[in-house]
Each structure stands twice: as structure tokens, then as C-alpha cells.
Design goal:
Distance between the termini: 192 Å
Largest sheet: 6 strands, mixed
């Protein structure tokens, strides 16, 4: 035991078994502390020390938690404690530390600081905290401490001691297997942490969230008996999604449990809040729910409450789960017209509100009127009554009555009635007309807000009344004037004022009493016998209520001038034709008038007439519509006396149908026919083609004749005919506008009186297609076609034969004259003189004893090779002086008598090949055996010379007496043929020229050898194939300046090469 004594101005001691003691605080006074340790009443130790102000620390009292309340649905923890302010007489600022721990062993979750003011009285402080883990997952512990901000205290200021722990117990010690939170409701797209808890001895097998793959929703151990699952960006799933937990225990039992997670939106702001009164007894407020929260009922459904601020009323609104609009109502308080209404929308995910302030006098929308009925009725007006629920005695109502058949409504201002019964007189009705009366009301201006809905329709038919309009009449007399037909137009429904029961027709004949006739309502005409007299007819329409105003018409007719002439002629013939001798102006004839054509307007027919001052009671236009019976339906229309034109329209008019109108003038003495008018509402193309035939056909023209198209098939005013014609080889279906050479191929016939036409300028014995069609303003009708062949034209045929013959004769004569005058040129060009081989010295054979040549042809025998000597001289004419041939067969042959000593010469040793050819059918005088043809290659028989030598050479050849057809250079000789007379003069052989070109010889024959040793220029030449060849053996002479002849034969220039006669 310790004895503690506090020494200051006074001594204060206390005993305690603890290691601490409490003494009253004495500031600003020296203090000595004495501590005595006692054991069984005896002092065993003593300690004394002084205590200053700075040695004293200011430690607030330990606070105590008054209440700790958890909200398991929202995971919010609510904390309450007393600040102990009554212990401090002055105002102090205080800070509080709140520490939260959980799990076993405990671990700190968070420490928060809270600030307050001590007001010298005890005050309960409140603080809340939201946990990220449900409270059911584990036990949560809370403790607090305080710190007072005392600046005037000289010593240290410290935190108070921690208060004892207050806890919120979890479910991890009480349940077998569970998942928390239970059926949570969260925002779409938010995050949530859930846990699975189990009792000791369990082991977690699986923890998963159905709307999230396990790889995206991670799990983690939380304690020995719980585990967590983290879910992020939670989506909306209709009906919610499951969090599933599976736990196994040591006794092989398994525990499975889970929870349903709901995701949605917070309540939207109430839309279009509107408050109105229907009867001035209750205020009805309506609003739209806006965006759906996707949550319904106890699982996050929105709750609405209405608060009226002025009266302080608070009402909970009830509404259907799937409703788009919510409404509620509350009673209107007397003497209160202004209302300020606030609508609150709340759910577990949030809340929203909307407010509206209004004056109910300006928000009146009555209910639909009921009990609508007619309490009084006449043909033109009724009194209508109805009931309108509500207390409207202090305002005026504006009510509208609809008659049901038109948009016309009748509006009337009414004072509010206490009994809610209202009535009104409805005027300007039609007799015997059915109406469907409807009523609606609203507050009258300036309090108008909205009309009520229309009441249910009340049908009513007004009573009948006499017809208000007189009938329109017309009459037509028979041709003999004995009878007259009276026509009238039925009245419109709006004019009958009831059901027409009959028509009353009355008239008065001279010398007779008034006669009348009742015509059934189904008829609109009657026939009356006049006996040739004229009278006035009266017609009335009757129903149950009475008769229409009477209508009158006279049967008298005023004839035209032409009709009066016919009538005078009729009187002269009366004795012979007594049947037509009527007393009236009629008779057995028809009055005559001019006929005109009207103008089509598309829906009617327009025409005009001349004004007439004698017309006093108007103009009448009469027409007749075709009907199924023999008689047509008569129609007419009346125009005022000052009218000069009319457009007649009718729903029965048809396009393409001709209608005939009669225009009458109503004068004081009767009706006079003015004119006839034919017209169409719309002209169409003719329906058929005109019939036509060929009247006559000649070799160059055709006469055709046609018949007019019937009026019923014209379908418009016929303007003319189109005639097309074309030849048979042209397409008969293609109509040309104009044919070349025949401008009449498209003929437009505009004279409607014409029915024949001649087509001229045609070809004889030719088939033509003819196409004839009519046309109107509406178009061209279908064509009718036929084919016709024109007659044969004999004169033309003769002319066609004579002209070519005459032309041929004239051309022949002119050609003969021209050829005669150019005969020499033609002969030289095309037929030159060919030299006679017999006159050639080279072929001058010795004659026999009788003087006849002993040889006509050259006989080719095997040639004995010789030496050929070519002697050159200075003479302008080159001469072969000596030719020595050496034969391989015979070595010793006599030489020619050439003087080799006096002239220089060249000896050419030449040994041609010997080609043997068997000769079939040898002559009898020839020895048996084979004949041989020897070819000789003559090289450079004529040496080269310049141009002057060539000209001298040509003159030399010309001087020899033979002129070939081609002048070729001497040095162009390439080939020659060896003749049988080897000893002939060389000059003769050199002066001969063949008539064909050497290149034209056939060298492809095996019997035509070429020189192997010489080049192409000096190649050997000879007979192409045999000794009987007709080819000449000496090549032609070529000019240097002329083109070489090709191997195909004579060139075209050879025909015009002039050569003098030999």
C-alpha cells in the first residue's frame, strides 16, 4: 500500500493499492509530491519530489461509445457517443480518432478523424462509415479516443485513452455455409465484394459469380472461416445473377449456398409533372417515371411520395409495376387555391425529386359530360342537356357541341350550376337530318386550361319540313305536237326536308277544267296529251310536312326562221297530209338549227352562244345521256339571261363519247332552239380504221376510195386521214413520213368530204402496201392496210431496151473511128511485123537441084568440140572471124578459112557436155541409134563497149536488115544454142535476136545444162527440153537504161515498144 501526499498551501493525502493516485488540480501553486510505501502499516520506503506546471500533462477523459448500429443492407456503420462537454466550462475544440478493426486476429482497417466543438454541455455525436466488405463476413470492432485543443494549458496536451471496443458480430461463427450480402442491389457498372462464410471444419471448394468468368472475378481468403470474391463492372441481368459457394466438411458433408445479385439504375427525375383538378374537389398529379431502373417490387423498385408544402400533406403514390405514368390525388382544402407539390422518387440505389407550384383555378380540366339527351326538338333546332360532375359554381364554363357530320361546333358560355345539370339550344339544323351530338367543356377564359374529353355521341333525327326549293322543269313535245313529256330534277336530300312521297303535276287546257296527276316519287317525268294545244304545267314535290314551292313551264315553242318556212310549206300540204295538220306550231317536222363543236376541258365541255335581248327567263342547255333502254336520260341546266357561255360537267360523262347539246332561249312566248353543239369531254384516237378499196390501178398510179368512220367509233372530232404507202420490199408495218422520190408517201387528207384520191408517180408492175387511218385531236387511230400491184408499163420497157442498145451502137462507132485513125500505132504496138526466118541469112540453106531449099529445120547432131576464136576489129560492127572448136570425140577436123595472122583474135577452148536424148519415132532415113543434142557455152561473144559503141552496134544490127522486138545490149547475151550447121557464118548467128526474153526460158529442164565454169552472166543457154522446142535460142538484147525483163514473160511496156519493119 502506498500513501500519496500532495503538499501545497494545504496537505492532501490519499491511500491506494494502485500505482496511481488522483488529486485535485492546483495550477499556479508550488506542489510537492511525497510517496510513502507501507507494508502492514509500516513505512518501508519514502520518495519526495517537487511538481511544476510544465510537468503536468493534459489528458482528456476516456470517451465511451453510446451506440454502434450496422445497416447490413448498405454496409453502413452508425456510431454514437457523448462528447463530455459538461466537464469543461469553456468552449473547446476537440478531435476524435475512430479506429475500425476486424478479423481474428484483429487487424486495423481504417482510422478516421472527426472534429467537433465542446459547448460546456454533453452532446451526442454521430458518425457513419461504409465498409467495403459486408458486416456478415466477419466481426468488426470500433473504438475511439479524443484530443482537446487547450492552448492555455502550460503543460503537455495528450490524446485520451482508447475507449473499450464495441463490435458488430459477423455470421462466420453462427452459420454452416452462407454468402453475403444477401440479395444485394447495386448500380449497373459498379463494383462489389461478396464473401462466403462457413463454420469450423469446412474447406472452400468453389466461389463464383454467374455473370462473370472465374478468370475475371478473383477470389481471396479472408479469414480461417471465410473467403472473398471481387466483382467489377457488374452488368444488368434480367432477374439477377447468382453468387455461388460450395464448401466441404471433414465428415464428408458438403454445404452449398448462394445469393442473387441485382443490378439497376437509380430513380430518374419525375418527368412532366402536372397537377390539375377534374371537379374542384381533388387535386390530381401525374408524372412519368422516366428511365426505367430495371428493378421492380421489393428488389429495388422505386417508391414515390408526394408532399404538399403549404398544407404539409404527405401522400404515398401507388402505381403499376410496368406503368409509364404515375398519379396520385388528394383533397382540395377550402379557401386554398395555391399548391406547391414535390414528388420524391427513392430506391436503394438513390433518389430524385421534382416540384411544381400552381393555382388550381388555372388547372381545371372537367371530366367528360354524361347523360347527354335532347329535351326539345323542331326541324331546325333542338335543346340539348347533359350532366357535368364537379363544383364549378364560382367559375364560368365554356362548352362546345359537335353535330357529328362536320367539323363545325357551337360554343357557348355557361355559369356553373350547383346541381351539375346544363342545357343549351342548338340552332341552324336541317329538317329530317340525323345528328350525333357530343359535348365537351372547360373553364372559360381567362382560366382556360384544357378541354375535357368528348362525351359519348347521342344520335337524334330532326322532324320533317316541307321542301324548300322549287323543282327544275323541262319539257319536250312529240314530232306531231300531240303529246308533251314533262321532266323534273329530283331535289337534293338537303332540299327535300323529308321523304318525298309524290309529285303533283297540274295543267289547264283551253275550254277544260284544271287537271292534275300524282306521280310516284320514284319517277321524274310524265307524258301528257295536249291535242296540239299549248298550256302551262305546274309541278310540286310533296312529303309528310307539305309541298315544295310550285314550278311552272310552258309547252309553247318558237320556231327558227328555217322552221317557220317549213311550217308554211306544211300548211300548203295540209289537205294531202291531214295527219300532220295540228293546231299548234308543231307538226310532222323537226325544227332546224346550226350545229357547232364544243371544246373539251378534260372534265367537261365548253361552248358559247350569242347574247339575245329577247331572252327573258334564261338559257337552257339540254343533253341526253345514253342508257340501257331505247330512250336516253334527259338532262338540262339553266343559265341566267346574261350568260353567253357554259361548261357542262357531269360525273356520267366518259372520254371519247360524243354528246349533243341543244341550246334554248326562254322568251316570253315560249322556248326557241338556238343551236346544236357536239362535244367530247376528252378526245381520243379513233377506235377503228376507215374501210377503203382500190378503184383503179395503172402502171404509174392508183385510185382508192374509202368510207367515213362511224361517229360512235371516232371518239373525237375527225380532223382528216393519213395515207401511207410503201413498196413491198419495205416493211409493211413501218410507216414512213416521206419516201425518197415520192413526197406523197405520207399524204394528209384534211378534206373530210373527200373520199377518193389518186397516188401517182409510181413504178409499173410493183407491189405497194397502202395504210389508211383517221386521226383526231386525241391521236391517230389504227391503220387499215391492203396490197396492190401496179400494171405493167410496156412503153417503159421498150425505152429501157432501146436506150442501152443505142448507147452500145454509138460507143462501137466511136471506137471504130478511133481505131481506124490510130491503126498504124495499134499495129506497131500490138501486132508488129514478125521477120520471116527464110529471109534470114543465118538460115540460108543450100538449095537442091530444083532450086528448093533442101532443109527447113535445123537438125541437132552431136557436136564435135572445136576451138572458138573471137576476132576483134576496129569496125563499128563486131564480127566473129574464126571459131575453133575442139571436140573430145574427133581430134582432127579441118579449120575454117580465117586469117589468123592478119587480125588479132582470141581462141576460146570450149568443151560442152554432151547430153544424149533418145528420139522416139525416128525418121526412116536416119540411121538407127541415138541422136545427141550438143549445147555450147559462148562466152563474151561481144566485148563490152561504152554507150557510143552500143549505139553503133544497134545501127549495125539495123543495117543488117533485121530489127527484133526488143533492143538489148550486146554484152547482155548470156546463152545461145548450138545449131547443126557448125560452119555457118558467125555474123549471121550474131545478127539474130529471138522474140522472147531469155529469163522466160525454162531452165529447170534436165536438158538445159548450164556452164559450170562460167558465172550467171555467161551461163549456157539452149533448147529448154528437146530439139523440137519452139523457143528461140538467142537471148534478147538489153539496154542499160531499161529495166531487165523478169522471168515471167513479156513486160507490159513491150507492147508499146516501137520497132521498124525489117
Amino acid at each position: 500500500m502506498c500513501d500519496h501526499c500532495l503538499w501545497s498551501s494545504t496537505r492532501n493525502c490519499s491511500e491506494t493499492n494502485d500505482k496511481m493516485a488522483h488529486f485535485p488540480l492546483m495550477l499556479f501553486d508550488p506542489v510537492t509530491i511525497e510517496v510513502l510505501t507501507l507494508s502492514y502499516g509500516e513505512k518501508i520506503a519514502e520518495n519526495t519530489f517537487p511538481l511544476s506546471d510544465t510537468d503536468i500533462s493534459f489528458v482528456p477523459p476516456t470517451p465511451h461509445i453510446s451506440r454502434l448500429t450496422p445497416d447490413f443492407s448498405t454496409n453502413v456503420l452508425f456510431l454514437e457517443w457523448s462528447d463530455g462537454g459538461a466537464a469543461f466550462p469553456q468552449k473547446l475544440s476537440a478531435s476524435w480518432e475512430i479506429q475500425i478493426q476486424r478479423n481474428d486476429p484483429m487487424e486495423e482497417v481504417t482510422t478516421k478523424t472527426y472534429h467537433s466543438e465542446l459547448m460546456a454541455v454533453d452532446t451526442v455525436l454521430h458518425w457513419n462509415w461504409t465498409s467495403d466488405i459486408p458486416f456478415d463476413c466477419t466481426t468488426h470492432y470500433v473504438r475511439i479516443r479524443s484530443f482537446l485543443h487547450e492552448t492555455s494549458f502550460p503543460g503537455n496536451t495528450e490524446w485520451s485513452e482508447w475507449s473499450p471496443f464495441a463490435n458488430v458480430s459477423g455470421q462466420d461463427l453462427y452459420t454452416s455455409v452462407a454468402v453475403y450480402p444477401t440479395d444485394p442491389i447495386v448500380l449497373i457498372g459498379s463494383n462489389l465484394t461478396a464473401c462466403c462464410v462457413w463454420k469450423p471444419g469446412g474447406h472452400l471448394n468453389e466461389l463464383m459469380y454467374g455473370a462473370c468468368p472465374p478468370s475475371q472475378c478473383s477470389t481471396a481468403p479472408f479469414s480461417k472461416l471465410s473467403s472473398l470474391i471481387y466483382m467489377s463492372n457488374i452488368p444488368f441481368v434480367s432477374g439477377g445473377s447468382n453468387v455461388f459457394c460450395d464448401v466441404s466438411f471433414e465428415d464428408s458433408r458438403t454445404g452449398v449456398n448462394g445469393t442473387v445479385l441485382f443490378a439497376g439504375y437509380p430513380p430518374d427525375v419525375p418527368q412532366n409533372l402536372n397537377c390539375e383538378t377534374l371537379d374542384m374537389k381533388k387535386l390530381v398529379c401525374r408524372w412519368g417515371i422516366g428511365r426505367s431502373t430495371q428493378l421492380f417490387g421489393k428488389y429495388g423498385g422505386t417508391k414515390y411520395s408526394v408532399f404538399e408544402r403549404i398544407s404539409g400533406k404527405n401522400i404515398t403514390a401507388q402505381y403499376e409495376i410496368l406503368a409509364k405514368e404515375v398519379s396520385c390525388n388528394f383533397s382540395i382544402l377550402p379557401q386554398q387555391t395555391a399548391y406547391h407539390v414535390t414528388v420524391f422518387a427513392s430506391s436503394e440505389l438513390g433518389h430524385a425529386e421534382a416540384s411544381l407550384a400552381n393555382d388550381i383555378n388555372k388547372r381545371i380540366r372537367p371530366q367528360p359530360p354524361t347523360q347527354v339527351k335532347v329535351i326539345h326538338s323542331s326541324p331546325t333546332k333542338v335543346r340539348l342537356s347533359w350532366y357535368l360532375d364537379g363544383s364549378f359554381t364560382h367559375i364560368q364554363l365554356s362548352c362546345q357541341i359537335s353535330r357529328g357530320k362536320s367539323s363545325e361546333v357551337q360554343t357557348q358560355i355557361l355559369d356553373g350550376a350547383e346541381n351539375s345539370q346544363y342545357n343549351i339550344m342548338v340552332n341552324n339544323l336541317h329538317p329530317y337530318t340525323s345528328y350525333n351530338f357530343k359535348v365537351r367543356c372547360s373553364a372559360a377564359l381567362p382560366l382556360f386550361w384544357k378541354w375535357s374529353k368528348w362525351s359519348e355521341a347521342f344520335p337524334h333525327t330532326t322532324p320533317e319540313a316541307p321542301p324548300t326549293k322549287a323543282l327544275e322543269l323541262w319539257r319536250e313535245r312529240s314530232p306531231n305536237g300531240e303529246t308533251v313529256n314533262i321532266f323534273w330534277k329530283p331535289l337534293l336530300v338537303s332540299e327535300t326536308n323529308g321523304l318525298i312521297q309524290s309529285y303533283e303535276v297540274s295543267w289547264l287546257l283551253p275550254g277544260k277544267s284544271m287537271e292534275s296527276r300524282s306521280i310516284p316519287a320514284t319517277q321524274n317525268s310524265t307524258e301528257i296529251k295536249l291535242g296540239g294545244n299549248n298550256c302551262v304545267f305546274t309541278v310540286e314535290a310533296r312529303n309528310k310536312a307539305g309541298s315544295s314551292p310550285p314550278s311552272q313551264i310552258s309547252s309553247a315553242e318558237i320556231l327558227t326562221e328555217k322552221g317557220q318556212k317549213n311550217l308554211r310549206l306544211l300548211h300548203l300540204l295540209r289537205e294531202e297530209n291531214t295527219a300532220c295538220g295540228g293546231k299548234g306550231s308543231g307538226g310532222c317536222f323537226q325544227d332546224e338549227a346550226t350545229t357547232e363543236n364544243g371544246i373539251a376541258t378534260g372534265d367537261g365541255i365548253r361552248f358559247a352562244w350569242s347574247p339575245d335581248s329577247n331572252v327573258t327567263c334564261g338559257f337552257i342547255v339540254r343533253w341526253c345521256l345514253p342508257s340501257g333502254s331505247e330512250l336516253c336520260a334527259v338532262n338540262w341546266e339553266i343559265f341566267p339571261s346574261n350568260a353567253t357561255n357554259a361548261v357542262i360537267k357531269s360525273a356520267l360523262f366518259q372520254p371519247g363519247v360524243q354528246y349533243t347539246f341543244s341550246v334554248y332561249g326562254c322568251k316570253s312566248k315560249g322556248y326557241q332552239l338556238l343551236k346544236y353543239v357536239n362535244g367530247y369531254t376528252k378526245e381520243l384516237e379513233p377506235r377503228v380504221a376507215p374501210s377503203f378499196k382500190v378503184e383503179k390501178a395503172t402502171s404509174d398510179s392508183i385510185w382508192i376510195k374509202w368510207e367515213s368512220i362511224p361517229v360512235a367509233d371516232r371518239r373525237g372530232f375527225l380532223k382528216g386521214y393519213l395515207l401511207h404507202f410503201s413498196k413491198e420490199e419495205e416493211s409493211p408495218t413501218k410507216l414512213k413520213d416521206i419516201d425518197s422520190g415520192h413526197p406523197e408517201a405520207y399524204i394528209n387528207i384534211t378534206d373530210l368530204k373527200q373520199n377518193t384520191i389518186q397516188i401517182s408517180s409510181l413504178q409499173g408492175k410493183t407491189s405497194y402496201y397502202l395504210h389508211l387511218s383517221g386521226y383526231t385531236a386525241g391521236g391517230i387511230g389504227p391503220p387499215r392496210s391492203l396490197s396492190v400491184v401496179t400494171n405493167d408499163n410496156s412503153v417503159g420497157l421498150i425505152i429501157a431496151i432501146i436506150i442501152p442498145v443505142a448507147i452500145a451502137v454509138v460507143l462501137g462507132i466511136m471506137t471504130s473511128i478511133l481505131c481506124y485513125r490510130k491503126r498504124e500505132w495499134i499495129k506497131e504496138t500490138f501486132y508488129p511485123d514478125i521477120p520471116n526466118p527464110e529471109s534470114c541469112k543465118a538460115l540460108d540453106f543450100p538449095k537442091d537441084l530444083e532450086g528448093n531449099p533442101n532443109a527447113k529445120t535445123l537438125e541437132m547432131n552431136p557436136c564435135t568440140p572445136n576451138n572458138i576464136e573471137v576476132i576483134e576489129t576496129q569496125s563499128p560492127c563486131f564480127k566473129v572471124e574464126d571459131t575453133a572448136m575442139t571436140s573430145p570425140v574427133a581430134d582432127d577436123l579441118p579449120e575454117d578459112g580465117f586469117d589468123s595472122e592478119t587480125e588479132s583474135h582470141t581462141v576460146v577452148s570450149y568443151c560442152p557436155p554432151i547430153i544424149e536424148e533418145e528420139i522416139s519415132n525416128p525418121p526412116a532415113d536416119e540411121s538407127a541409134g541415138s541422136s545427141q543434142v550438143v549445147y555450147i557455152d559462148i562466152q563474151s561473144m561481144y566485148p563490152a563497149a561504152d554507150k557510143l559503141k552500143e549505139e553503133a552496134e544497134a545501127d549495125c544490127i539495123a543495117a543488117a536488115g533485121y530489127k527484133p522486138q526488143m533492143q538489148l545490149p550486146v554484152n547482155s547475151l548470156r546463152k545461145t544454142e548450138y545449131t547443126s550447121a557448125a560452119g555457118e557464118d558467125v555474123d549471121r548467128a550474131a545478127g539474130y535476136r529471138p522474140q522472147v526474153s531469155a529469163p522466160s526460158w525454162n531452165k529447170g529442164c534436165p536438158d538445159s545444162p548450164t556452164s559450170i565454169e562460167s558465172n550467171h552472166e555467161n551461163g549456157s543457154f539452149g533448147s529448154p527440153c528437146s530439139i523440137n522446142s519452139r523457143q528461140f535460142l538467142i537471148p534478147p538484147k538489153e539496154d542499160d537504161d531499161s529495166p531487165k525483163a523478169n522471168s515471167m514473160g513479156w513486160s507490159f511496156a513491150n507492147f508499146f515498144h516501137n520497132k521498124p519493119n525489117d
